[in-house]
Amino acid sequence: MSSRGVRSLEQLPADVRDALPDPEPTPPPAGFSVRVARPFIADGAKERVAKAIEDGLVSSATSVVEELEEELCRVYGVPFAKACSSGYSALVLALRLANIGEGQDVLVPSLTMVAVLNAVLGVKATPVFVDCESGELNPSVEKYAEKLTRNTAALIVTHTYGVPADCVALQNFCRSRNIVFIEDIAEAIGTECCEKLVGTFGDFACASLYANKAITAGDGGFVLSTRKDEVMKERADSYANHGFTKRYHFVHLEGCGNHKMSGLQAALVTPAVSQLPKVMDDRNRIAKRYRSELQSIPHLTPMPINKWGKDTPWVFGVLGDSKETRKRLRQALADEGYETRDYFLPLHLQPLYRTSAGPTVSLPNSEDMGRRGFYLPTFFGMTEEIIEGICKCLIETYKDFM
Ligand SMILES: Cc1ncc(COP(=O)(O)O)c(C=O)c1O
């Protein structure tokens, strides 16, 4: 058995067992009628995919992928973009491009998706978990500062659920300490902070293009960089493709995986990039409606609002007043056919990471969010009737048990 991770939940220390979420609600016999997410297929996407097929431009080594990278550079106003196979791949590539590896610490928010932890462990760096600010979904600069070590080489921020962290303060913090600033924008593609897109504050940004994200390639991802670096493209192309180099085809100097995006995936997502403002307007409409409908429930706290720009959450999250309340509300919604998801179980409590030896760190704000939070269906084109139905179910259920 490896030094990290446990084989069964019973082996976990008591604090982790206590934090574990309840099993997922039972779906209705006919299945969920409203899923938690639905893919956004942009105008023009079908035609572009059909054209890629007609032209035989289906692999990663095609102009279709380059066109996506050019479009990302244009929309984000950055000099470098690399399309890849997933958000996880984007994180690994960014960490490698930033030369992060063994013996170095990476500050990681605990309230996020496991891919962030896996990528840091994947490059053999050491994750140092950071708590979110009280009542917030992201760590503040102060929370990161508390966890600085002599070996801190990089800081990752995840703009959790599409609510931006304090990008300007974090940028200044990283610059003044010579720390690489990596923005994981998987949940915040199109989100703005101080009139700039998030992903343009860091040295690197990483995104997932999985089907539940604001825009999608089915699966996929991309890395952006604000750095002007002549050899970055060559290095990224090699890291994403088994370490092949242009000079000697079958000579591999470094161990690398396969992180490539296909031409078909690129064709599907490219038109969506310029349609992001439309997607964000719709997220704003959905959030406004949820906020206004749910304000009559005293013990249900809606997710924090963007303090530096338009309120465009990736998913609409709420906090119940206890874990038990969350369980009851999620089951009531499931009974009516609405799919929901718990907030993340914080990374520092993940069974994959913890030994059975006992607690490693206590991050009370993330633990509290992870225990009480869940999110509601949120997707482009969601009708007002669906939002009303969800809110009505929450209000009625609350009445029943308060
Ligand atoms: C913050 C964050 N990073 C990374 C990922 C991983 O993306 P993928 O599933 O494309 O590897 C996700 C996925 O939801 C995410 O939310």
TrEMBL record:
Superkingdom classification of source: Eukaryota
Q: What is this protein called?
A: GDP-perosamine synthase
User: Gene3D superfamilies annotated for this entry?
Assistant: Aspartate Aminotransferase, domain 1, Type I PLP-dependent aspartate aminotransferase-like (Major domain)
- Entry's PANTHER family? DTDP-4-AMINO-4,6-DIDEOXYGALACTOSE TRANSAMINASE (PTHR30244:SF34), TRANSAMINASE (PTHR30244)
User: Pfam families given for it?
Assistant: DegT_DnrJ_EryC1 (PF01041)
Record region (Disordered): 1-30
- One GO MF term attached to the UniProt entry: transaminase activity
What's one GO BP annotation on this UniProt entry? polysaccharide biosynthetic process
> What organism does the UniProt record list as the source?
Geodia barretti (Barrett's horny sponge)
